[in-house]
Amino acid sequence: MRFRPCIDIHDGKVKQIVGGSLSDIMGAETNFISDQDAGFFGRLYKKYGLKGGHIILLNKAGTDEYSADMAAAELAMKEYPDGFMIGGGVTAENAAEFIRLGATHVIVTSYVFRDGMIDFDRLDKLVNEVGKEHLVLDLSCRRKGDCLEQDDYYIVTDRWQKFTDAPLTHDTLDKLKNYSDEYLIHAVDVEGKRGGIDKRLMTLLGSWENGIPITYAGGVSSFDDLEVVRKLGNDRIDVTIGSALSIFGGDMDFDEVIDYFERD
């Protein structure tokens, strides 16, 4: 299990939002807005040698706000070349440009779904453009329906606003691993709420044995949560921490988190 840092960018600023609250019309429910620019976090993660972090551009591609997100992301990648993956608005047409700017991987969700289903033609195009070794599939998911006891998770797209018809299952993970170097999976139902991880989802991910690296995000609020991730994830699921981290206004001290993972 490794710690993967993050930089979420919205309206050109580093923020932490509540998962599922992001709307093109209403904006987002925000936990934290940093006074520091994205370059600061690039320098910080470089100082600690934290590779494999992800930058997520939260605004809709083609808007002025997305351009501001992109400018902020470039600051971070300039400070820490080859330190980040980047997602948000990635297509086969622009994927290579993100790599040229210094990202190790592009992170893709919405582009590879059409009419709610996996579009394997688009996956093939992405692999042809940047190579499987530079591609991360974001399979962030939510439970479908109102029953909190169900275990039916479905992949969501368009900044987590739209359900697809693709369930997150071991079969889906098996089908997509030939197109991706890693998976990034946000538990959207608990993302940004600092109320603990999604244990059912973690159990599902931790019991998949056929695989490529997975980074889990969503709900980590304490070191006890990290121990749950370690146990249910069979010590092979990487984790990111957002709103609970001290550098994003939370209670988990950043240096203590670094120390925790360095003990492994």
SSE blueprint and pairings:
Elements: E1 6-10, E2 13-17, E3 30-33, H1 38-47, E4 53-57, H2 64-79, E5 84-87, H3 95-100, E6 105-108, E7 113-114, E8 117-118, H4 120-130, E9 135-138, E10 141-143, E11 153-157, E12 162-167, H5 170-176, E13 182-186, H6 199-206, E14 214-217, H7 223-232, E15 237-240, H8 254-262
Parallel strand pairs: 1-4, 4-5, 5-6, 6-9, 9-13, 13-14, 14-15
Antiparallel strand pairs: 1-2, 2-3, 7-8, 10-11, 11-12
Helix pairs in contact: 1-2
End-to-end Cα distance? 8 Å
Total DSSP helices? 8
Main beta-sheet strand count, sense and barrel state: 10 strands, mixed
Give the low-pLDDT segments: none
Average pLDDT taken over every residue: 90
How much of the sequence lies in strands comes to 15-25%
Q: Give, in order, the helices and strands.
A: EEEHEHEHEEEHEEEEHEHEHEH
Number of strands: 15
Q: What structural class do helix, strand and pairing data support?
A: alpha/beta
Widest beta sheet: strand line-up:
3-2-1-4-5-6-9-13-14-15
Radius of gyration: 17 Å
Q: What oligomeric assembly is this protein in?
A: single chain
How helical, in percent, are the residues? Answer: 25-40%
